[in-house]
Design a protein that fits this description.
- Pfam families: Cons_hypoth95 (PF03602).
- This is Methyltransferase.
- It comes from Bizionia saleffrena.
- The protein is α/β, with parallel strands linked by helices and about 190 residues long.
- It has a single domain, classed as Rossmann fold, CATH 3.40.50.
- Strands 3-2-1-4-5-7-6 form a 7-stranded mixed β-sheet, with helices on both faces.
- Helix 5 links the parallel strand 4 and strand 5.
- The longest helix has 14 residues.
- The protein is globular and about 40 Å long.
Amino acid sequence: MRIISGEFKGRRITAPKKLPVRPTTDMAKEALFNILNNLYFLDAISVLDLFSGTGNISYEFASRGTENIVAIDQDFGCIKFINDTAEGFEMPIKTIKSDVFKFLENTKQKATIIFADPPYDFPLEAFVKIPTLVFENNLLETGGILIVEHSKYTPLSHLPQFSYSKSYGGNVFSFFEGEQITEEEEEEEEKY
């Protein structure tokens, strides 16, 4: 895999073959970041990278100047690989070795962008559980989005908070948005 843009553009990263991963294709990654570049200043956001695998998506954010990145995966080999790669490139990626669902149930950490790339062969209930936990636990910052990567055979458009999806080959990115609250509502909430 290679980093497609930013400070580390063109750098190749070779993950060990034994890691249980399916990295996002370069074409899909490039299309995704074209969308995100139009929505956010990537150097001013925070990111949770769920089922981070090789860290492919985290490296793209770091290369584009994002400094608050947390990568979560339950595989020790994946976490070690991300730590080693991030250290080698001096990227500000923090890792957490955890089952993603347990992490989502227990964390209070919010992010502007939550990206989830679970195994494509997960049952539909597992895919549904991701946005459910994110929104039940209020893990998106105001104006934030949840992006779930999945195959074209996994329907997610019926879920609450679903906004739109984009397809690239066999990859689909489904975008979920919370209710946007105004600054006044946020200030009112903080009083309590």
